[in-house]
Amino acid sequence: MTALLKQKEKNMKAIQPEDQGYWLFTKGSMIYWQENDLPFGSAKELGLTTQKAMLLGKWKSQPLWLVAENEQDEREYLSLRSLLSLLTEDFHLLSRGVEINHFLKTHQFCGKCGQKAEQTHDELAVQCTSCSYRTYPVICPSIIVAVRRGTEILLANHKRHYTPGKAGIYTTLAGFVEVGETFEDAVRREVFEETGIRIKNIRYFGSQPWAFPNSQMVGFLADYDSGDIQLQETELHDAQWFSSAAPLPELPPTGTIALKLINATLELCKAE
């Protein structure tokens, strides 16, 4: 770890004219992406000395500053989703910035007594100015799972991906983990709720920060156990078993853990 990363700040501070590097501006789950990169230069050159920022890490070996989100900013922003093809560590760093700004924007007041909350200086958190209640960035754990049956894979067309006349993306099943639930229990429940299918041999695959706005996608592989597809129609437009030897429908974009799960399952199908 570099000396710069060891010293990275935990809170937003007034930007100094001599501060220099790359600058990350966010608006919700979107970022300002200029000429296929983040803007670079000194704070004075870019007119940022009236704003606040925190040192997030390094971008192309230069300091990366996260600028406090400003809803009045009229720059043209780009969805973070469109940058999934970036190197994994770069995408995760941008995701971290998006999630930090989301946390700060949505926790300006105490969730316990309603009074003003301010950033702490010793860690990434906000603390109430009245009752001292401290809140940390909220991360919502979600499971995502690819299910295999012999040489077939279960793929679903979610309602958000469907438009009349065009099926759209077919992908894996996913959902939020509920209170008091293990990740494995959440996998079983979500698959059964959405498709009526029971699964077995659940095993961890990997994870992905998902700043839309503050999820952590925890991926699993699983095998079919029993049952026939019965759609949860409030969530899914369609779900089918697809042969690994036949052409597949449109799949999620490169860079998503969903596509990684699908590809891993197709490899298992080939070896069957």
Can you put this structure into words, describing what you see?
With 272 residues, this protein is an alpha+beta fold. Helix content is 20%, strand content 34%. Strands 12, 13, 14, 15, 16 and 17 form a 6-stranded mixed β-sheet that branches. The longest helix is centred in the middle third of the chain and has 19 residues. The N terminus is likely disordered.
Layout: helices, strands, pairs:
Elements: H1 3-6, E1 13-14, E2 20-24, E3 26-27, E4 30-31, E5 40-42, H2 43-46, E6 52-59, E7 62-67, E8 78-79, H3 88-106, E9 117-119, E10 126-128, E11 134-135, E12 140-149, E13 152-158, E14 173-176, H4 183-195, E15 198-210, E16 215-226, E17 236-243, H5 257-271
Shape: globular
How much is the average pLDDT? 94
Low-confidence stretches: 1-7
State the helix count.
Answer: 5
The biggest sheet, with number of strands, parallel, antiparallel or mixed sense and barrel status, is: 6 strands, mixed
Give the termini distance in whole angstroms: 43 Å
Helix content: 10-25%
Task: Tell how many strands the DSSP assignment holds.
Answer: 17
Range of strand content:
25-35%
Binding site for a divalent metal cation 1: 174, 194, 235
Binding site for a divalent metal cation 3: 190, 194, 235
InterPro entries: NAD-cap_RNA_hydrolase_NudC, NudC-like_C, NUDIX_hydrolase-like_dom_sf, NUDIX_hydrolase_CS, NUDIX_hydrolase_dom, RNA_Hydrolase_NudC, Znr_NADH_PPase
Keywords: Hydrolase, Magnesium, Manganese, Metal-binding, NAD, Zinc
